[in-house]
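Lay summary. Proteins are chains of building blocks that fold into shapes, and those shapes determine what they do. In this project we predict the shape from the chain. Here is one chain we studied, written as its sequence of building blocks.
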Amino acid sequence: MSDLPALLVVLPILGALVSLLTGIRWDRSGWSVAAATLAVQVAGAVAFAADGLSGDPESYAVGDFTIPYGIELLVDGLSASMVVLVAVVAFGVLAYARRAGPRSNRFYATYLLLVTGLTGMSVTGDAFNMYVFLEITGLTAYALVASGEGGRSAVAGLKYLLVGTFGASLYLLGVGYAYVATGTLNMGDLAVELAAVGYGSPLVRASFAFVVVGLFVKVAMFPLHTWQPDAYAGAPDSVSALIASLVSTVSAYALVRVVLTAFTPEFLEAVPFARPLLAATATVSIVVGSLLAVSQTEIKRMLAYSSVSQFGLVVAALSVTNGTALVGLAVHLVGHAVMKGGLFLAAGLVATGVGGRAVGDYDGLGSRMPVAAAAFGALALGMVGVPPAVGFLGKWYIVVGTLEAGSWGLAVVILLSTLLTLAYFARLLERMFFREAPEAPAAGPPDAAVADGGDGSSVAGDGAGLPGADISPGMSAAVVAAALLAVGLGAAVPAYETALAPTIEVLLS
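And here is the predicted shape, written in a compact code that computers can read:
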């Protein structure tokens, strides 16, 4: 195994350092450094995926230390999917952020450090190392949320910090209990030692509960979701898209990885409360998240509550733990990241173009901003699960998996959530394509000139304040690319299922 897994973690750190150093001399060099870094990251991630998706799972020992004493990096289908997803989405959002902002070198350095944390979470096979990268991801996400020009961003960032730190602390406490019980932190070794200690051990069961609940906070499962709506709505649009696409997605991946690799499906079978905890949380999140989304009038808050519901599907698939459901889980993680990130970018594009961030501002959008409306519509239908979009196939596999397991109640809940998802997106589609545009452009909020996190001065004298004046080709291209991916990825699912088969076999063994 080459050093590529470690290099993919180190590269964004070096890019962040270069961004800070060049900022001493050129205060607008950060975007170029970040773009070059992420271009290399994408190429490396594709090479990594070629290994992870082309054969049996492998591992890499950092520093050639003997596993389980050294840190192990995992190379399999799931880790490869997450590494590629992180690199590609971060690169795409960066194209949007060049004009939308924020634009300081410090912002781009923090952006790259977030990529480091997410990549590290995706490849690590060590439970404590997962915590380290979880904290890097959290700290950088808090800073990015607070990078907007206004008190709302600062308050949202502080709330995210407080709740996120609580979740990370619970996870660390659970890992500590597992270490006390077994004397190891390597996930593969934990699977052996936890079984040897006995799944009936109170220490082992407490470890599972703390780890799972801590990651529930990071994923934003109801009722531990309270940080998410404010963070998504209060952050700059480019940041909202980035964290909505990746932070909760990779946290959900971490939950799947720890539960299946360290605790194993045997633990879920042996411990009476394990599966019910996952299934009950999934059910409540799916239903309540959808109901809260229906009741929202602000677009970004509606999309945030939608994520609470959509990640409930992932936990539902995990609670079932069969091959079909796990394929759906992986497809849904990738598809949701692309579609939800695209929707946040489209919402930012609309806010920049017509100055509206509420449901009522979308009247006649199809005639005012046809490209943005078409992309938003395609992404929304994908989220509902309309074929051939990838959103349909992810839900299909999960529903079939629940039926195979005899979990009819979960299947009904998932189908109900599809109707609720249709309810809150249908009202937007009706407004965009079947209502007349208002006679005058909708007025934006008082701080609309910096709503995307720009510093104000960077756009002064360049049409700032005029609807549509600050839309760049990169912003439009990022939104259109997300819509095309949402549709195009559906065709790749059969091949992806075949490539994932060795990984799923290992996870279920």
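What the prediction tells us: The beta strands are 58-61, 72-75.
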